[in-house]
């Protein structure tokens, strides 16, 4: 039995590394997920998208945020803290997707109410596995709240 997805999943991908971004985009494309992807290259841009500030008024409110921790302008920890402290945004699941495997980063992310912490893989095949895991759990199994 196949479940039909009523609408594309809105994903905000916050990533500043061009190599990681390219791998993620390729993995998302190969996953054949029905998604609308919004990209932000730093923490300030991510918050502008989420708050629908100038230049981002038409960007959809994401169903899920894939967030790198090490970002320019405003790092991922600050972005995570701001999202989870905001009455309108705190329900949006935030998946940390970062190169750091440091226990202190993992602990801090969960203290800031991250919904999931994933260490970025290095190759395309591993990225595909991670994206497919995200797809099967967050976009197929989990029922996401509609945030407006």
Could you write a compact summary of the structure shown?
The chain contains five helices and five strands. By secondary structure, it is of the alpha/beta class. Strand 3, helix 3 and strand 4 form a beta-alpha-beta unit.
CATH superfamily: Response regulator
N-to-C SSE string, H for helix and E for strand: EHEHEHEHEH
Nearest-angstrom radius of gyration?
A: 14 Å
Major beta sheet, specifics?
Answer: 5 strands, parallel
Which CATH top level class fits?
Answer: Alpha Beta
Summed over residues and divided by their number, the pLDDT gives a mean of 85
Query: In order across it, which strands form the biggest sheet?
Result: 2-1-3-4-5
Judged by helices, strands and strand pairing, the structural class is: alpha/beta
Helix tally?
Answer: 5
Walk me through the topology.
Blueprint: E1 9-14, H1 18-31, E2 35-40, H2 43-50, E3 64-67, H3 76-85, E4 94-98, H4 103-111, E5 116-119, H5 124-141
Parallel strand pairs: 1-2, 1-3, 3-4, 4-5
